[in-house]
Design goal:
This protein is 27% helix and 15% strand. By secondary structure, it is α+β, with helices and mostly antiparallel strands. The strands form two sheets. Strands 2-1-5-3-4 form a five-stranded mixed beta sheet, covered by helices on one side. The protein has a two-stranded antiparallel ribbon with strand order 6-7. Helix 5 packs antiparallel against helix 6 and helix 5 (187-197) crosses helix 8. The longest helix has 14 residues, at 237-250. The radius of gyration is 21 Å and the shape is elongated. Bound molecules: iron/sulfur cluster and FE2/S2 (inorganic) cluster.
Amino acid sequence: MTATLDATPEVGAVPSFEVTLKVMRYLPSDDGSTPVPHWDEFRVQAHGTDRVLDALHKVKWEQDGSLTFRRSCAHGVCGSDAMRINGRNRLACKTLLKDLDPSKPITVEPIKGLPVVKDLVVDMEPFFASYREIMPFLVTTGTEPTKERRQSAEQRERFDDTTKCILCAACTSSCPVFWTDGQYFGPAAIVNAHRFIFDSRDEGGAQRLEILNDKEGVWRCRTTFNCTEACPRGIEITKAIQEVKRAMITRAF
Ligand code: SF4
Ligand code: FES
């Protein structure tokens, strides 16, 4: 047990408590042998407003500089610190320690389904390869317009939800289909295809649907909703996938 509030906090001071972080470590070997992942425990002093990312920083800066993880913005924008916290995919910078029952050790692991490079860092290349395949950019033909491409509020609303993606991979790496078949495009690629397929200015929708009509495409989704639960941006991913499936059948988009 590790979380006890200070009995006599100073007047005006934010009470602190101790938490135990149980972190999955994976250290690449120099001699060609296959490294075995193992757990390391760290005890850190934290405040109620601290996030898991703050605790990881404390470990790295004060206890073990070799602990390796990605982060950049620290405010839920860049998508670089998705990890498995207490068995659930979350952004470390958006997860408050006090919301995790700090009386028990908090487990932190790399997201699943992607090769681990070191500790909490995974190789994101397979994830971004699928993203690139669905052509995540506006496709237009004809001459460039002299004014901006106009769109009504209703047309913009059609794909508003899927514009929120920050490419954190929390969805794709929470998907059991992706765990067993790394070739599956995965929810994030489909979300980003949705963002352009339903954009009234785009002309590449039919091509994207063809790409996703692959055996590793949209039909592999088993509607488990893991992706929707994992998304830190609250995107209705399963719904978006269903809309792409429907567009594939009706060709109406
Ligand atoms: S859809 Fe959500 S969970 Fe998936 S990559 Fe985008 S922001 Fe992350
Ligand atoms: S560090 Fe950028 S989203 Fe968490």
